[in-house]
Amino acid sequence: MERTGLDALPVFPVGAFYTKDCSMHGFAITNATSQELKDCAKTINDALANSKLKSRISRIMPLAEAAAAHRLLEDSQRGLVKLSGKIILAL
Question: How is 9-74 classified by DSSP, letter by letter?
Fold first, then answer.
């Protein structure tokens, strides 16, 4: 079974990372202050709006199907379903 969530062991492209002079910044969301979360949300939203960041969306589902979306995520973690991106709940 593929490891997901906190158990995931993704491959990190170290060579390309260094040759492109990239940097990575992050934090544990559960330790962030409200202001840090607000600042990060603005940075991410600005990057998305300016096409500097692209999100992978697997499915868009109506908000009324939130329970089904949750089950889909659980099935994905169990390896029963393959998701290639995020599930978006829309009004």
Answer: -----HHHHHHTT-------GGG--HHHHHHHHHHHHHHHHTTSS---EEEEEEGGGHHHHHHHHH
**CA distance linking residue 32 with residue 21, whole number of Å:** 27
pLDDT in tens, 20-52: 888 887 778 889 999 999 999 999 999 989 999
State the Cα–Cα distance between residues 79 and 73, nearest whole angstrom: 10
- Token look-up 């544990």 returns 28
Residue 86 DSSP SS3: strand
Give pTM, 2 decimals.
0.51
The answer to whether the CB of 85 falls within 8 A of the CB of 58 is yes
As a whole number of angstroms, the distance between CA 7 and CA 10 comes to 10
For residue 69, give Cα distances in angstroms to 9, 64, 87, 90: 24, 10, 7, 11
The radius of gyration of the chain's CA atoms, rounded to the nearest angstrom, is 16
